[in-house]
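User: I'm writing a short methods note and want a consistent example. For Dehydrogenase/reductase SDR family member 7B, I'll paste the sequence; you return only the structure tokens, no commentary, since I'll be parsing the reply automatically.
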Amino acid sequence: MSSESFQDFIGQPKSREGVEFRMVSAHGRQMERMLGLGVGPLAAGTVGLLILLKVIQRLRHKQNLQDKVVVITGASSGLGKECARVFHAAGARLILCGRDQKRLQEVVEELRNKTYGKIQTYSPCTVTFDLSNTSRVSSAAEEILKCHGHVDVLINNAGISYRGNILDTHVSVQRDVMETNYFGPVALTQAILPSMVDRRSGHIVVISSVQGKISIPYRSAYSASKHATQAYFDCLRAEVDRFGLQVSVISPGYIRTNLSINAVTGDGSKYGVMDKTTAKGRDPEDVARAVLKAVCHKQKDVVLAGLLPTAAVYLRTLWPALYFRLMASRVTKEQRLKEE
Ligand SMILES: NC(=O)c1ccc[n+]([C@@H]2O[C@H](COP(=O)([O-])OP(=O)(O)OC[C@H]3O[C@@H](n4cnc5c(N)ncnc54)[C@H](OP(=O)(O)O)[C@@H]3O)[C@@H](O)[C@H]2O)c1
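Assistant:
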């Protein structure tokens, strides 16, 4: 067929550009018809497939805690005690840590005879030490490793809070909070880490705080210690990934525990007050379940906070000037309330 008769056959104008254009649009119409018939089911099928893949991936990577050796610091109260209950119910072999042997023993007594259907449970061991005494931490780590020969999951939960004005706070208080909340967990982690690297297996969890992502006034020592915690464990995660180790940083908002009562003030004395925000905080059992989920699903960074604190985390990054203004006006408001 000559080029002229071909043009006649398809009824296109004779200009070269015109032919190309109309041929493309004819092809386009055909495509449109095909897509018009199939785009809905195709999109639904793709989304369904992606969800299925995600579920399979989660199930494949899910860690079973039956018989796993789990160390929990600060297990004598609050979130640590709830973590002990939740991980015990999952069949873990617990090593509970804290400064007060009597209170740790009470947790052991509570859990000792509890059964949960077919789940095999174990009576927990205890190791007593003060995290702020870094020289004691390495011998405590040896005791921990002797209990079952290894550690599968280390939950760095113990911590103290602080309430105070920077102007009235001794540097020694800033340092003490840092010792308990930062250097203690760092020393314990580094003492346990080589055995995890040798086994090419292990999961390190740290309970940080939303205040590890944003700072609020009158919490300098606490917030600084939690920011340092976030930074250290983010580095650790990257460095131990090649050994197959997991690191999870959990950042909760307020939890209903004695944290504010046990907080220290600028002169090092106990604050001793249950703050309204803490009293209205999350149920520690819910937070403990979220910690369990983070371990089972190997979640790397979990923020457990309401809409406002979560928005504040984004605001601090995306519009810092506004965040700083809001925090400064918060101080002005609190000062005015104090003076009234
Ligand atoms: N409650 C909240 O609103 C909130 C919010 C975000 C994050 N967090 C974090 O959650 C974690 C648990 O706190 P919590 O709310 O459960 O408070 P908590 O009830 O006061 O418990 C703190 C635990 O840490 C232990 N601890 C404190 N200082 C220690 C030290 N020097 N050496 C060893 N253990 C020490 C305490 O044990 P002993 O006194 O028996 O030694 C206690 O078991 C902390 O890391 C905290 O920062 C809490």
